Amino acid sequence: MTPSIVFSLLSLLLVSTCGYVLPLEEGFISGVISDKGLEYAKELLVEKGIGSIEMLQLPEIENSAQVPFVGNAKVVLSDITIKDVQVNSSSVKIGESGVVLVVSGATANLSMRWRYSCSTWLIPIGISDSGNASVKVTGMQVGLTVNLRNQEGSLKLTLLDYGCYVRDLSIKLEGGASWLYQLLVDAFEGNIASAVEDGISEKVKEGMVNLDNLLQSLPKQISLDKTSALNVSFVGNPVLSNSSIAMAINGLFTGKNEVSVPQGYEKGLKISSACGGLPKMIKVSIHEDVFNSASLVYYNCNSSCCSCAQADKMQLIVDELPDQAILNTAEWRFIVPQLYKRYPNDDMQLNISVSSPPVIQVTYQDIDATIFVDITIDVLEDGEVIPVACISVEISASCAVEIVGNNIGSRFRLQKFSTYLKWSKIGKLHMYLIQSLTSSVLKTFILPYLNFKLKRGLPLPIINGFGFQNANILYTQPWIAVCSDVSFIGDYYIGQQSGYVS
Ligand SMILES: *[C@@H]1O[C@H](CO)[C@@H](O)[C@H](O)[C@H]1NC(C)=O
Ligand SMILES: *[C@@H]1O[C@H](CO)[C@@H](O)[C@H](O)[C@H]1NC(C)=O
Ligand SMILES: *[C@@H]1O[C@H](CO)[C@@H](O)[C@H](O)[C@H]1NC(C)=O
Ligand SMILES: *[C@@H]1O[C@H](CO)[C@@H](O)[C@H](O)[C@H]1NC(C)=O
Ligand SMILES: *[C@@H]1O[C@H](CO)[C@@H](O)[C@H](O)[C@H]1NC(C)=O
Ligand SMILES: *[C@@H]1O[C@H](CO)[C@@H](O)[C@H](O)[C@H]1NC(C)=O
Ligand SMILES: *[C@@H]1O[C@H](CO)[C@@H](O)[C@H](O)[C@H]1NC(C)=O
């Protein structure tokens, strides 16, 4: 069976519509797969399972028997191929020991070649013949039970039990003698049934081993850019309930070259699996600390102690404004005479830097961000940058979140801002001047810049090949949750490199 399918079943983070609370410790991103999600995953799994069984070649079967008037017949069945598998019903249940998947009432056609040779003391010259036969297998059952545990931050899948049972089969001989037909029915029925059972059981086991390998090979960290990575290590064991599977990943941002971002764990975080009554396949809940950890990583990137990409620094130099005149001391002649007196007719620039890590809070309506920015006014004189004043700004912004592809994206909207003069070498600046300069810079640069940075969004941990569909966003302080259906959009085969979408 294709592992990515089972993986979706097991690791798409998840939900139930009945809305109980799951105790998931220490995970800042958690997921619940609801009964609907399990059902969908099961359908995919069965479909892929059929795909892996169809055209399966079973080993040759050889048997010999004493046939009246014919003598000792040695019969070989070869090229035994499973074809046209139909599944009548299937179910997935979460039991005490793990996830149980059962397929029942399946049918399959087998095609095969037969040949025999025989000799008797009456007719010492051997006779032989060959031809085709088909077998219809009915009432076939396939079942498996798997369990999931956390093994050093990865998910370990254990196949606890599996098997295949063939209830009935009928043989149709093309050509051949009637004694041969009787022999096949008498002597081979059991062999054919066993061959089918063994062949399919083997495939189930193989699929689960591959799936386990895939789970083990999933990254524990997703690199987001040159500066940060998302810790996607699993935390704790998956929680199996009657109709859903919940699991949690660490979910925090870490700096690329840092050992670890200081993180204050809130023990025993509880997340709800409810989706506001909507029947969705999965629910992914993200704690506001995920965003705050990102804020910390990018903020620290500003300081020289930690290596980070220039492009990721929370810093911006502005030397062009819509009202360009403002960036020349001449324009300030009457407003700030001191400035003009000391630096007559010099160009200026604004050095905007974030002065403390932005604080992100998830409320019941949206996400609120408080961003502290210093705008340093520099005068450019003879190739020298001379800071002359610094304005501190506290920006309150809200952002609504949307799902774009498999990313969670957002756009900041300015709510309000407040300013004060942090320091000045050019005397007191007029409040009106500070306000209008700040307002202009905010609207023209800071917010567009932040929104540009946010455009990329945060990749939701979902497996390659799956996409979100009809996603709804729920805000439940301090969690933001994505309730969504998923659809399988790509085909990923056993052994193929798979991972998270980034
Ligand atoms: C399978 O067997 C049934 C009954 O013999 C037949 O109707 C059907 O066409 C067969 N399918 C294939 C693919 O051979
Ligand atoms: C499918 O299962 C139902 C009940 O489980 C049964 O009534 C029906 O005959 C089955 N169909 C086939 C084709 O086996
Ligand atoms: C037996 O089946 C094979 C293909 O599986 C076909 O090439 C061959 O012609 C068939 N032989 C008879 C005698 O029907
Ligand atoms: C699970 O099912 C059992 C019996 O069906 C029931 O007693 C129990 O309350 C259910 N638990 C949850 C969490 O729904
Ligand atoms: C990632 O998260 C796991 C589980 O919480 C933790 O043990 C590990 O130290 C974290 N890795 C980094 C680099 O922070
Ligand atoms: C980075 O932020 C710190 C505040 O912790 C500030 O003192 C420093 O000047 C900033 N560095 C740069 C390069 O902007
Ligand atoms: C911008 O200001 C920061 C301090 O706020 C300083 O560290 C940095 O060197 C300045 N950058 C430029 C290009 O002036």
UniProtKB/TrEMBL annotation:
Q: Where is the Lipid-binding serum glycoprotein C-terminal domain?
A: 276-484
Cellular component GO terms held in the UniProt record? extracellular space
Q: What is this protein called?
A: BPI/LBP family protein
The residues the entry assigns to the signal sequence are: 1-19
> What keywords would UniProt list here?
Glycoprotein, Signal
User: Mind listing the GO molecular function terms for this protein?
Assistant: lipid binding
Q: Which family does it belong to?
A: Belongs to the BPI/LBP/Plunc superfamily. BPI/LBP (TC 1.C.40) family.
Work out whether the entry's keyword set contains Signal.
yes
Task: Write down the SMART domains for this protein, in alphabetical order.
Answer: BPI1, BPI2
Q: Which InterPro entries match?
A: Bactericidal_perm-incr_a/b_dom, BPI/LBP, BPI/LBP_pln, Lipid-bd_serum_glycop_C, Lipid-bd_serum_glycop_N
Its domain of life? Eukaryota
The organism's taxonomic lineage, starting at the top: Eukaryota, Viridiplantae, Streptophyta, Embryophyta, Tracheophyta
Q: Where is the Lipid-binding serum glycoprotein N-terminal domain?
A: 33-258
